[in-house]
Structures are given as structure tokens and as C-alpha cells.
Predict the structure.
Amino acid sequence: MTEQIQNLLEKGVSRIIERESLEKKLASGKPLRVKFGIDPTGTIMHLGHAVPIMKLRQFQDLGHHVIILIGDATAQVGDTSDKDAERPMLKREETRKNAESYVAKFSKILDTSKVEIYYNSEGLDRVNFCGVGELAKHFSVAEMLDRDNFSKRHKAGVRISLQEFLYPIMQGYDSVALKADVELGGNDQYFNLLAGRRLQEAFGQPKQDIMTFDLLLGPDGKKMSKTGGNCIAVDMEPNAMFVKLMEVKDELILDYFRLTTPLTLKEIEPYRARLESEENPRNIKLDLARTIVTFYHGPDAAEAGRAYFEKVLSEGVTPSEDEMEKAYVESEEIGLLALVKAIGFAATTGEAKTAITGGGTKINGEKVTDDRAPIRLSKTKGTVVQVGKKKFKLVFSK
């Protein structure tokens, strides 16, 4: 096995079904059809979302055919694999608009000129009601209820719509329509990925191999999310990205190297050794932040990010407005409590209230302790919002 194939099979990978089959396919030299699907329910793509995209890049570097499936049909049903309730349905127009934003962000990682973009409404819209029945007969109600999230909801008496049962069938049919050789997905997608194998077999196709990935936690060790305030977006401004990466907990450093950087397993090993030698983790995080910011924004931006971090956090200097990350809010006037939450400086109302009433919040350099204070925003002149010693944003109204 070549080092390149070993990295593809092992770096950041949680599970492969079936590994021996995939190894043989990779060794054959035949270009594989590698599928990854997204339901574009929003426009933000963070480092956690980018984990499978980084793996697609490895497949692409080996000469395989990458297919990005845009779930404009499945998004209207909603995948609740990692949810404890039904997910709101989106209009198809919304998913299409969101998809354009996602594909633009993929270009930071993939050569999108060589990527096939497939909207799954193309195949699913042609399946009539009888066709749905033919697909559904390959799955039992017991199997559906055995899924962890469905099982919990069923036992708790939380409603499960029949429509939700259709989601894995739809995703499975996508693999039939695309004749996928490999499908990538998160660990929470395991059942849906297996559905593709089952339906391919029913249609007389070779079963796709599947690959799932470890979950990337936020810098604070919690699930990465925009509302949680621990999100690192792939298009985050370099200085803000550098600072956010310096907040990564020490025990997560190697996970970030494995899941978010293009470094090989061999190139990551020295960082493991440095951590085990009890070197100050801060030094290793500086290398981590430089590596990731360089990947998304280039080496000059990474060096500027490091200088910004040292100036603002180590020396306590207020950054210039040009150095601050920009944020945009819908209203021209907004209460301070809502503003602090809206720009991601607090995950909860309680956290925002504490930051304000505790005296840690400034507007244009002036401390404000009234959480109900109205803040006027301009479309042209930014308002500097500071929370604590290191969080700064230049905020505009849209």
C-alpha cells in the first residue's frame, strides 16, 4: 500500500465498509466515482463541515471522480440523523441558493472544475408513488426504529413522521442513480450510507464502499456550531481564524491536525512527539493556526494573523479597524444583549448578560453595562464591539 493510499484510508477516518474492497479498488488504478452529499440548509461552512471535503481532495489527488450531490430534494424532507425532533422543511429555491454558496467555499479545498455537481431532484423527481413503494419494500419499520435517534424519540413519545423514514431511502437511491463506488459521510450518516449499499444490490449494481469520519469538536470541546459561538468558518477572516484556533483545547490539537489540515500522518507525528515531550502546547498551536490559515488564506495572511494574535492577546493592544473581523446585522438599531449574541460573542442570553453586566463589553471603546442599551449601527461606518480582552468585531447594519 502506498503512503498516499494509507493516508486516504486512515487519516481522520472513523470507519470503512468494506475496507478490503476499497483497498482493492484503489490499488486497481481505476478511477472511482466518489459521492458526497449535502443538504444545504444554510450558507455557513465550518471546519467540521470541511472534514469530508478534505478527504475528497485526497481522492481527487489520486485521480478519482468526485461527485458533490446537492440535496435539493432531500432537504425538503429533512435528515434527522443527528436531531431529536423533526427538521423544518426548506423550499427548493432556498436550497439552490444555499448550494451556490457552499460550492464557492468548496473551491478553497477542491479543484471544482473537475467536480461533478448533481442535484438529486434530477433523479428523485422522476420516481413515482409506485416507485417509492418498490424502494421502501427493502426496509422494515423495525430497522428504522432501531436507529438511535428514532428509538429515543419513539420511547419518549416524540412524533416521528413517515416522511422521515423516507429520507434514508432517498439518499440510498441517489447512490443507485449515480452508480457510486464510494460514499463519504459523518458517523451520524451510517444508516443512510448503508441504505445506498442495500438499494444498489437490489438494482444489480456493485455495492458502494462507505467511509465515515470522526467528529471535529469546537475549540472549547463542544459540538461546533454557529449558535454555540465556537464556529470556525472556512471563510472567516484570517486574523479572527488565527485567534480562534489558538483557543483550541490542548487535548484537541492532534484532532485538528488530523481532521483539518492537508498534512500527512507522517508529517503530523512530530507534533504528537512534541506534545508528549511536555513542550508548551501554545507553541504547537501556533504551528496549527499557521498551517490552517495558510491553507485557506495563504502564508502572508497566516503571518499577519500571528502578528495580530501576539499584539492583541500578548501585548493587550487594541487592533486597528482594518485588522478586525467584520460582522453584519439586519437592523440599524439593536439591543446590546441581542447584538452580542448576533455576532457570535455569546452562545446564550445568560452568557451575553454576564459579559455585559460584568463590565467586559465596550462599544467604540466605551464600557457599556446596560444590557438593554440600544446600539445604532451604520451601513458605512463600522461600530467596534469588544467583549473581554480579545474579542473584537467591526459591526455594520445590512
Remarks:
- The mean pLDDT is 90.
